[in-house]
Specification:
By secondary structure, the protein is an alpha+beta fold. It has two domains: 4-234, Rossmann fold, CATH 3.40.50.300; 241-382, no CATH class. The chain contains eight helices and 22 strands. It has a six-stranded mixed sheet with strand order 6-7-8-3-9-10, sandwiched between helices. A five-stranded antiparallel sheet has the order 14-13-11-15-22. A hairpin with a 2-residue loop joins strand 19 and strand 20. Helix 2 (93-103) crosses helix 3 (108-121). The radius of gyration is 25 Å and the shape is elongated. The chain starts with a strand and ends in an 8-residue tail after the last strand. Residues 4-235 form the ABC transporter domain. Keywords: ATP-binding, Cell inner membrane, Cell membrane, Membrane, Nucleotide-binding, Transport. This is Sn-glycerol-3-phosphate ABC transporter ATP-binding protein UgpC.
Length: 390
């Protein structure tokens, strides 16, 4: 195993284009790091620099505490799994897995033991004598992983390994990669544009945009406490709802009420930060009181903000169980049953908002339903800078 330290790493090409703008990341021994972001954010470039396939313009990359900027890929004790599998079509699975071992002149008897161990771990012993052309996409990906495992490196690098697989196979391979990490405990750096992969696989996530790490933390930290509007919208499926509005004086304070309370009521322990966000639906105005500490937004009444709420934070009363919930009568435009829950779509302050409710809570359109807004995890962003303010 090995730790990974990235210190103020920059990458500028000869044409002057800067694709990495001072990246700082620390990964402990055995952690699973996800580099996630849209196309062109710099995540694959950073992975290639860790691997030694791209040069570092400035800054330092340390593996196991050792600076590797000037080391060749073969001297970094890493193994890489590519998006394209990169298998030799004329070789059998056995030969593909043992190819690197041959290059390093590992004795044949030891090669046999390694191939058997790796193929058993990945449940592909029955495929050893087949060629890549006779395998499915998921099987080819297992072979690519097996070739990396055979090296027993200090660190694995994965470059969007599941992007060529269909949805069902992606889910299966996700589980296999996670189990593999749990068994081996080896440090993994994994590049993806898929936020579901990021949330389900990683111990730590670095969300990237335009060559800058927008936020670095655990999946739950990034999901619950996004640092800006980009992170909040990128992580989560369906994505976070963004409702533009003005800060107004709160309407009273929250107090515990009965479960059958009418729309407009509030359920939960008392709070009074003094501010709320005014929202409008079908000509009806309401104020969503905000549970931030009194004084957090002192003197900011009238400020333009963006209120962020996850779909599961707007729900039916039976589904909502947290302490600070406020009800508004809503008439949904679209109803999408998904099986375990139902998604409701409606307009609030001119924005399209998604709510997640119990499948039996709303079964038809054309009438108002009380939806409960859980403000305990509400986040506020500045409307101009898009940075989080509360």
């Amino acid at each position: 195993m090995a730790s990974l330290t990235i210190r103020n790493v920059r990458k500028t090409y000869t044409n002057g284009v800067e694709v990495l703008k001072g990246v700082d990341i620390d990964v402990e021994d055995g952690q699973f790091l996800i580099l996630v972001g849209g196309s062109g954010c710099g995540k694959s470039t950073l992975l290639n620099m860790i691997a030694g396939l791209e040069t570092v313009s400035s800054g330092e990359i340390l593996i196991g505490g050792k600076k590797v900027n000037d080391l060749s890929p073969k001297d970094r004790d890493i193994a890489m799994v590519f998006q394209s599998y990169a298998l030799y079509p004329s070789m059998t699975v056995r030969q593909n897995i043992s190819f690197g071992l041959n290059i390093r002149k590992v004795p044949k008897a030891e090669q046999t033991q390694i191939v058997e161990r790796v193929s058993e771990m990945l449940q592909m012993s029955h495929l050893l004598d087949r060629k890549p052309g006779q395998l499915s996409g998921g099987q080819r990906q297992r072979v690519a992983m097996g070739r990396a495992l055979a090296r027993d490196p200090a660190m694995f690098l994965f470059d969007e390994p599941l992007s060529n697989l269909d949805a069902k196979l992606r889910i299966e391979m996700r589980s296999e990669i996670k189990l593999l990490h749990q068994r081996l405990g080896t440090t993994i750096v994994y590049v993806t544009h898929d936020q579901i992969e990021a949330m389900t696989l990683g111990d730590r996530i670095a969300v990237m945009k335009d060559g800058v790490v927008q936020q670095y933390g655990s999946p739950q930290q990034i999901y619950d406490s996004p640092s800006n509007l980009f992170v909040a919208g990128f992580i989560g499926s369906p994505p976070m709802n963004f409702i533009r509005g003005k800060l107004v004086s709160a309407v009273g304070s929250a107090s515990t009420t009965s479960q059958a309370a009418a729309p407009g009521a509030v359920i939960g322990a008392a709070f009074n930060s003094g501010v709320g966000v005014e929202v409008e639906h079908r000509g009806q105005r309401s104020v969503l009181n905000l549970p931030f500490e009194a004084g957090t937004l002192h003197g900011q009444i009238g400020r333009e903000v963006i209120l962020g709420l996850r779909p599961e934070q707007i729900t039916d009363r039976e589904t909502g169980h947290t302490g600070l919930m406020q009800s508004i009568a809503i008439r949904p435009d679209v109803l999408e049953p998904t099986g375990p829950d139902t998604l409701l779509f409606f307009q609030l302050n001119g924005a399209r908002v998604i709510s997640r409710v119990h499948p039996g809570a709303v079964t038809s359109l054309g009438h108002d339903v009380p939806l409960w807004f859980d403000v305990s995890k509400a986040v506020l962003f500045d409307a101009a800078t898009e940075a989080r303010i509360a």
